[in-house]
Amino acid sequence: MASLAAIQRLHGWAVQLTAPPLARAIGGVGIALFIFGLFLAATGRNPLSAYAALYSSTLGSRTGLSEVGVFMVPFILTGLAAAVPAKVGLINVGGEGQLYLGAWAATGVALYSGLSSPWLMLPAMIAAGFIGGAIWAGVALLLRVWRNLNEVISTLLLNFVAVLFVNIFVFGPWKSSGGFGYPYTPDFSAAATLPALFGTRLHLGLAIALAAALVCYLVLGRTRWGYNMRAVGGNVEAARRQGIPVARYLAVAMLVGGGLAGLAGMSEVAGIQHHLRPGISSDFGYLGFLASWLAGHNPLALVGAAFLLAVIFVGGDVLQITANLPSAAIYILIGLMLFLVLGLKKTSREGA
Amino acid sequence: MRYRTGFKSTVRSLLVCALASLSLLLVTACGASAPAATAKPADVLPANTGPSAADLGGGSPTAFAKVFTDATAGSKARAASAYADAAKPRPAGQKLKVGFIFVGSQADLGYNQAAYEGSQWLERAQPDVQVLRAENIPETAEVQRVAEQMITQGASIIFATSYGYSGPIKQIASKYPGVVFLHQGDLETRENYGAFFGNIWQLEYAAGQVAGKMTKTNKLGFIAAFPIPQTLLNVNAYHLGARSVNPKVETTFVLTSDWCDPAKQTTAVRTMVDSGIDVFTEHQDCTKTIVEAAERSPNTFVTGYHQDASSAAPRAWLTGAAWNWGPIYSQLVGEIKAGTYKTSVIFGGLDAGFVKLAPLGKSVPPEVQAATLATVEGLRNGTIKPFTGPLKDQKGAVRITSGVVPPDAELQTIDWLLEGITGSLK
Lengths: 352, 426
Prior knowledge:
heterodimer, A: ABC transporter involved in vitamin B12 uptake, BtuC, 2 domains, 14 helices, globular, disordered C terminus, B: alpha/beta, Rossmann fold, 12 helices
């Protein structure tokens, strides 16, 4: 295809300008915005004013910026859930299910622990969320160990099981009596809600997510553990011959990944929804997975990718409201970005 | 993966970053200045004459107006003139921005399309109104973000059109005291949060009569989403309608726990067709139930909900209950603009033109068509009161005693199913 070749050449030119990973990201995103702009123009909308609305409603306003932060929390945490196992060569597609289990466990603590002080309640919910997500990842891990079932398949399919598992509780014993038959749990007490920041919907979960990303970055990039993990991910056999306990690293990476996705679920129920209900995740697990791949599984770059996706998501609503775009259009833009950042990788092989 | 890059490449990437942000700024600056030039001169406001009988699907304009004046008279809330930004004078040429939030696709041939078309009606009726729309917004805290974005874009009236929006929207209403929030289906109000809905169960009763006459197996299927009062009222009315013409009718009630999950609707329909059910209806936002039921067997019939979806199932289509949102939206916006609106729970039925009968299908014999139209007339003028006691629930306990006709407000909070309906509320 001539157009693909042209895009590749354009992209190759962009790559020559700078260091590979960053260029790939900026080049891919830039070209995606350009092509999406053509799509906007072709449907009779002004791409410049659409992008201006996207900018002013996200980065250009206080509420917009805070909403971007709100979205970044689950994106970063579920992104880490993919990035950490990826370091040892495991592909965790189960962020969505692990998020639900984390939310479920945190809700259990919020509703039934009886703790009244937020200083006890929130750490207990954080621990529960982490453990809930880790257990769900552990199921995939056990299947891998016992039955050699590929974790891509098991984590993906367990996502659907997780949603149904949570539904058992939301439609059953945990259902609020005050909802006219609508499926959600009672609202959390004040002690079980993450404090909101700056009078917006932004909450303490952002600090947790950023701290998690920083810790992951330092551990993976600057410690012996991280070095060993990369060795396992690079060549299992070589790592084994070096005396690295491969199985332990695989297990810990997977469990920590699941736990981080569980934290995303915890922060959603404790920071935003304030109760558990079906559909608490707007595909956060999958989008975090996507963000991790966009970022090349680098935890710091992941913060950038999460930021980008958050801007697109928050801005996507505004494109609907102001440019009358159908809600699905935003997925075209995200698809284009992923395709261009990952699909045109061969020009910068050395960066991978 | 490489974390560290050389000094040179770092400088180069910074350069590209700077270039990129510069061009972004440039694009933003150009884009921001572009639309301002196209502002139009002041619109001439048409006199708000209210809807005609034709607009109301045969309902009476007087009854329509009375619903709103009664609601205002019965409300203890402040008039909108005291707080609503929409009631304040606007500079010439500036339109009043009204936001509409939909839970599903605006082309679902069902609930959301009916609401969407209502919002178009509003724009046509009041040229000084600009409608902002957002579709496929989940009933979670996401709706708060979308509503807040609409407010940032200048909206001073927000229509939250899905039932599950009530909780999240009530949470943010107090944060925006100048904005009027209108919820489609809630039974509660707040200072600047009002609600409205229609007695669509009246048409479920009429559709149930058609179903009761057309069924060969005496088994009807009702596929719903959540066991909320408006849904339970609908299935009860449907069953009552069917029983009024065919006492042998049994109705099976199934919940999918989703306003539009085509896969669950399909599974439910297939199981129900296999169990001998031959007339289907739904309380879903989208139409998969009736399409699947019509395609599954040549002996099935369907009645629709929300709007005319006969094009989706021409053979099997009998009739259906349909909304008539346009005049209601327009009236509400008009009253807020005038400052007379007071938050309240507004309900209207056939007489006020809030709801109407969807067209009868060609499978319906002429005598059944005539009987159905007579029923609709009876419901409209009040000679037919379906929920007249004695009525028993599923367990056989009398819930409405002999001769009693509960007021509409009581019916709207119904939480039980009639005798002869199979299915649970969970």
